[in-house]
């Protein structure tokens, strides 16, 4: 049980620090979303590989991402940042001019992040 608590605190801290880093050094919104996607992928790999898909660690991951995905980032909500990110990906293929397969993979990862946002209607409103 202690391990799950420490893991949850670690994930929450990493996410909050990423959000605060966005405030401090002015990372571009697109890069911020990419970093959150990378963090989610990395932590999901920990849960899958190191903790053998234990349900307590999945729950800790979910709770930690809900905390910082619903935290405001530089006067913007995560929903707005994700909507802007998706818009850029769909219209331009992103800053890296992604292939169709890479676009689909990236959008699937964004959908996973949307599950952590408490007000998905806000995302839909921003995306319009």
From TrEMBL:
<dbReference type="InterPro" id="IPR001373">
    <property type="entry name" value="Cullin_N"/>
</dbReference>
<protein>
    <submittedName>
        <fullName>Cullin-1-like</fullName>
    </submittedName>
</protein>
<comment type="similarity">
    <text>Belongs to the cullin family.</text>
</comment>
<feature type="domain" description="Cullin family profile">
    <location>
        <begin position="77"/>
        <end position="128"/>
    </location>
</feature>
<dbReference type="InterPro" id="IPR045093">
    <property type="entry name" value="Cullin"/>
</dbReference>
<dbReference type="GO" id="GO:0006511">
    <property type="term" value="P:ubiquitin-dependent protein catabolic process"/>
</dbReference>
<dbReference type="GO" id="GO:0031625">
    <property type="term" value="F:ubiquitin protein ligase binding"/>
</dbReference>
<dbReference type="InterPro" id="IPR016159">
    <property type="entry name" value="Cullin_repeat-like_dom_sf"/>
</dbReference>
<dbReference type="Pfam" id="PF00888">
    <property type="entry name" value="Cullin"/>
</dbReference>
<dbReference type="InterPro" id="IPR036317">
    <property type="entry name" value="Cullin_homology_sf"/>
</dbReference>
<dbReference type="InterPro" id="IPR016158">
    <property type="entry name" value="Cullin_homology"/>
</dbReference>
């Amino acid at each position: 049980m202690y391990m799950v608590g420490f893991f949850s605190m670690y994930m929450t801290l990493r996410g909050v620090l990423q959000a605060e880093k966005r405030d401090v050094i002015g990372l571009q919104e697109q890069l911020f979303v990419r970093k959150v996607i990378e963090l989610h992928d990395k932590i999901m790999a920990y849960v899958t590989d190191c903790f053998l898909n234990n349900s307590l660690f999945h729950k800790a991951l979910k709770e930690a991402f809900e905390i910082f995905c619903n935290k405001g980032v530089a006067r913007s909500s995560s929903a707005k940042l994700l909507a802007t990110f998706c818009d850029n990906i769909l219209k331009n293929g992103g800053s890296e001019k992604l292939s169709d397969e890479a676009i689909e993979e990236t959008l699937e990862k964004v959908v996973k992040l949307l599950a952590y946002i408490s007000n998905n209607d806000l995302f839909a409103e921003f995306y319009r």
